[in-house]
Amino acid sequence: MLLSAFAGNTDVKYELSEAMSRRSLPHAIIIEGDKGCGKKTLAGILAAYAVCSSDGERPCGRCPHCLKAEKGIHPDIFSLDGNKPGELNIDSIRNVRAAAYIKPNEAANKVYMLFNCEKMLIPAQNAFLKVLEEPPENVMFILTAASSSVLLQTVRSRSRILTLYPPLPDEAAAVLRTRLPDKSEKELLEAAETAGGNIGLAAELLKSGGEEERKLAEEIFRAVFMSAEYPLLLLTNRLSKDRTFAVRVLDCLCGLTAECVRAALGAENTSDKAKELSDRISANRLTVLQKNVQHAREVLNINVNLSFYSTWLSGVLRSTENGG
Ligand SMILES: [Zn+2]
């Protein structure tokens, strides 16, 4: 993907395109931002830049290096994910450290992408710091985390930190239009709103219909603020059968809640749906709900028993209403 196709985040894109045209990107970059704001996508663009062989704009999206990067098969781009067991532990980081000083295989540069660095513990971070202190030539490190504050100050001070925000629904819809040109404007905008600017999720919803997930997320949202507890329990129970379905409903709920927080804070460009749902609910309560929903979504990354999960979820969401 080209940098220009990355949604929203105008300031970050401007800074990067300036640095890219001067061929002067820093050797360590931390990308921070909430789930769904495009951290992985941007990391992929930066990685393609580092291996691209074009004399003009990089990444060009056409040279053999860019094509391999796009397919995820470039031999000089390595990715490690903190959400996968052991991938960001001290041994893995030591291996990275040893390998980083070896010359690239095909491209002029090598790239290490370290995703979800909130899972990188202090000993592993200290091992990583040693690489940053004596940075190998022609190597770029790209780290992602919800917040860079999880990283040691010494790591942060040796890196450029980029903060991403989810794109506004109309910015997200503009990107979706290029990927799914057969969908109507209304469908694109609706999916972008439901997904709270999370383009990957919006695209998934559009491809699969996503009607059921969207509707259930909305019903759950309404039930959180009802006085009776039972409706919410019935609704969350529908997540107990299928993990993929549960993940998508929770993703929708994350997007919807984020959009409602924006509406409650009086942000422009929020949808009528978000305005209606957030009506008479304070921004504070919505922010608590947003945190609870994000936490509940993360819990789904672990292999939880779905039937316990659905009951637990109902309680967690209810605690929003009780000010918890
Ligand atoms: Zn290229």
Offer a quick outline of the entry:
By secondary structure, the protein is of the alpha/beta class. It has helices spanning 10-21, 39-51, 64-71, 90-100, 122-133, 153-156, 169-179, 185-194, 199-208, 211-224, 230-237, 243-264, 272-278, 283-299, 306-321, and strands spanning 28-32, 77-81, 110-115, 139-145, 160-163. The protein is built from 15 helices and five strands.
Report the radius of gyration as a whole number of Å: 21 Å
Overall mean pLDDT? 91
Question: Got a strand count?
Answer: 5
Q: What's the architecture of the largest domain, going by CATH?
A: 3-Layer(aba) Sandwich
Number of helices: 15
Number of domains: 2
Query: Beta-strand level of the residues, as a percent range?
Result: 5-15%
What descriptors fit this protein?
single chain; 324 residues; alpha/beta; Rossmann fold; Zinc Finger, Delta Prime, domain 3; 2 domains; five-stranded parallel sheet; 5 strands; binds zinc ion
Secondary structure topology:
Layout: H1 10-21, E1 28-32, H2 39-51, H3 64-71, E2 77-81, H4 90-100, E3 110-115, H5 122-133, E4 139-145, H6 153-156, E5 160-163, H7 169-179, H8 185-194, H9 199-208, H10 211-224, H11 230-237, H12 243-264, H13 272-278, H14 283-299, H15 306-321
Parallel strand pairs: 1-4, 1-5, 2-3, 3-4
Helix pairs in contact: 2-3, 4-5, 7-8, 8-9, 10-11, 10-12, 11-15, 12-13, 12-14, 14-15
The site of zinc ion has 9 residues, from helix 3.
Please describe what this structure looks like.
The protein folds into 2 domains: 3-163, Rossmann fold (3-Layer(aba) Sandwich); 210-321, Zinc Finger, Delta Prime, domain 3 (Up-down Bundle), CATH 1.20.272. The protein is 54% helix and 8% strand. The protein has helices spanning 10-21, 39-51, 64-71, 90-100, 122-133, 153-156, 169-179, 185-194, 199-208, 211-224, 230-237, 243-264, 272-278, 283-299, 306-321; strands at 28-32, 77-81, 110-115, 139-145, 160-163. The protein has a 5-stranded parallel beta sheet, covered by helices on one side. Helix 2 packs antiparallel against helix 3, helix 8 packs across helix 9 (199-208) and helix 10 packs antiparallel against helix 11. It is globular and about 65 Å long.
